[in-house]
Specification:
6-stranded parallel β-sheet, 6-stranded mixed β-sheet, 14 helices, 3 domains, Rossmann fold
Length: 429
Amino acid sequence: MNLILGLGDTGLSIAKYLIKNKEDFIVMDSREKPPGLLLLQELHKNFSFINKFDKKVLTEVSNIFVSPGINLNNPVLEEARKLNKTIKTDIDIFLEQSSSRKVLITGTNGKTTVTSMTRELLSQSLVKKRVLAIGNIGNPVLNHLYEKIDISLIELSSFQLELSNSISSDVAIILNIAEDHLDRHSSFENYSSIKKKVFQEAKVRIKSNSDIEDSNLISYLDLFRDYEELFLGLQTTFPIHDIINIKASISIFYALLTIDKKNNPKNKIDLKSLIKNSLEILKEFNRLPHRFQDLGERLNIRFINDSKSTNIHSTISALDSISKKYGKNRTILLCGGDTKGQDLEQLLKIPKNVVKKIIIFGKDKNLIFNVLKDSIISETVKDIQEATKLAIESALPEDIILLSPASSSTDMFADYQERGNEFIRLTGF
């Protein structure tokens, strides 16, 4: 008997996998009606659902399949480890069984953007290959296990990496590591080590920079140092942090080609041509919503929706991009929410010559205010509605109002999308 711990999209994909393989299972979730339950009941009648975490069921099961929302400290999971039960994730199964080339993409910020960019780049460059973007991007990997895929681009969160075991790939990239999800991972050191698991069994490893000699490691920043002039034309269209994401995407393409070259040494890689051809494709890339989304101008004020910035590092990157693209001392920053255990002293790295005023809302607004009050003009308000209203009232012509919360949205919204959509509604776009 198998146990699925946690339902939702991933749990449902695991259930479908077990159904296809004619294996019995129990579903366990703390929620009375978790997402996916009604659909699963329509698909398959022969399973039990337990709406609490009950360790007693472990006497009946041999294998536990874990969804990423389940914490390592979950009592059922802890007991399963004591009993030496087999514990697997959907990622484990896919990496073991899929015959596709596997590219693993992780990092604190930029994962979804880089995964989407790379899918666009590879799909247009390798027209005979089927390239699929799956994983944390909102497309569970097991939904595609039995499909013909040439290259799997797998976005991985720290939650997925934490619970996965053997992590093998053709290419693995860590875009960046900054404080995030410390409410779950307890320390930055632990969070960082979880992210680095992605390199475990990768043929080629990519990171932002490298100070070690390793023929299997590529720095996606160092790789293009001699070709910076080729990227200059992007600055009118893309913020600085997305130009970095573009470099990461091209480096993934380059890494895949280096693997081919090892298999066939006659395949010479012309890096300059590769960059030029890639940029022709990526310059048309439609940037994703809620990620430094330039909504446009109203009342002679520019509005930018960066709701996906759920940590301080991401917000500082957004402000850096604003400084380089629009100039200094013009930005009113809206931030706040659940800071998730971040070291709030990092807020002092916010460039003071970029931000005119910070308007803070949400659960941890007072914590943020206490850090910033002596360095930047700051004010607390009840919610995003009041914050937006005050920002518009405070703005002068040609100012920029930036929603970049540096915090999770879950204290007030279902997710960052709902928060971003509310900002869009409030600003009239």
